[in-house]
Amino acid sequence: MEENLIESRLSNLLKPVVPRPEFVQTVGNRIHAVRSTVVQAPTTPWKLLVLLASLLSLGILLSLVGRGLFDLLISQKRQAGS
Amino acid sequence: MLETNNEAEIVERALQGDKEAFGILYERYVERIYNYIYYRTGNVHDAEDLTARVFYRALNHIHHYTDRGVPFSAWLYRIAHNLVANWHRDRSKHQEIPLSEVPSLTYKGAAPETSIVQTQEQEALLRVIRRLPPERQHLLILKFVEHLSNAEIGAIMGKSEGAIKSLYHRTLLMLRNYLESVDSTGE
After folding, report:
1. pLDDT tens sequence across B37-49
2. Of residues B53, B48, B107, the one with CA closest to residue B82
3. Nearest CA of chain A to the CA of B50: how many Å?
4. Residue range B59-81, pLDDT digits in tens
5. pLDDT band at A62 (very low <50, low <70, confident <90, very high)
6. Cβ–Cβ of A18/B180 closer than 8 Å?
7. How confident is the model at residue B114 (pLDDT cuts 50, 70, 90)?
8. In this complex, do A39 and B17 lie within 8 Å of one another by their Cβ atoms?
9. CATH code given to domain B111-187
10. From CA B26, how far away is CA B4, in angstroms rounded?
11. pLDDT for B52
12. Which CATH class is domain B1-95?
């Protein structure tokens, strides 16, 4: 099969298609509507989640360390008492 | 009012949050991105859905865009390519849409009452095109739908003009082989 023939068939098949005007307009309007909120308020929820997770981890760590120190003090006191 | 000819300036303004500038980029490229996605997916519904998502994603990530001397459209095509790839992956039971859907669309330059001649040959060709690697499908769409030159295609696809010429030649050979095997097996 000749390449020219394939090219001819391709040009007959692959033609520009026009999207529905309503679709183009709807998306265009939505882009204008969301633009300000998206760009001006770059809120990143994942950063907040990381912060909360870090605080929670820190709290757990401090409580474990505190508990360890408390147990240590109690055992030393008992040893001193006996 | 923005000067609409200087794309770099428009992109720069869009990067700074200028609504009107992004709107100009949208209007300039929506049809091209739609065409690309339409021929990659084969149906209007998904083409509209994915085209909208391309521009929403571009809007939300435009601050990540850096001008590396390639057209802005190359960045949009890359987003479109990724979304289409995800779409293909997500469709576990992917069914090709026959060309019978095409007449519902309006072709540029064609009279409204003109209907597209449906032939088995066209359907076979479309099926064969969809079997090509995505890069080659992209090349054919840019060449035949957008009527871009090899140099322009190269700028979008990040290749030299010579590489595009070579890729195009190999694509035609692959198509010819596929079509011949289809003809001989009568698929």
Report:
1. 999 988 899 999 9
2. B53
3. 11
4. 988 888 887 777 899 999 999 99
5. very high
6. no
7. very low
8. yes
9. 1.10.10.10
10. 12
11. 95
12. mainly alpha
Cα pseudo-dihedral B96, B101, B103, B108, rounded to 10: -60
* String of DSSP letters for B40-52: HH-SHHHHHHHHH
d(CA B18, CA B11): 9
Kindly report the nearest CA distance between residue A10 and chain B, in angstroms.
Answer: 7
Residue of B nearest to A42 (CA): B60
**With an 8 Å Cβ cutoff, are A6 and B175 in contact?**
yes
- Residue ranges per structural domain of chain B: 1-95, 111-187
* ipTM of predicted complex: 0.73
Contacts of B86 (CB under 8 A, 6+ apart): none
Find the Cα–Cα–Cα–Cα dihedral A15, B133, B57, B91, rounded to 10°. 100
Specify the residue for token string 């098949």: A13
Q: Find the DSSP H helices in chain B.
A: 7-15, 19-41, 44-61, 72-90, 120-131, 134-140, 150-157, 161-185
Residue holding tokens 């303004």?
Answer: B13
Distance of CA A41 to the CA centre of its chain: 15
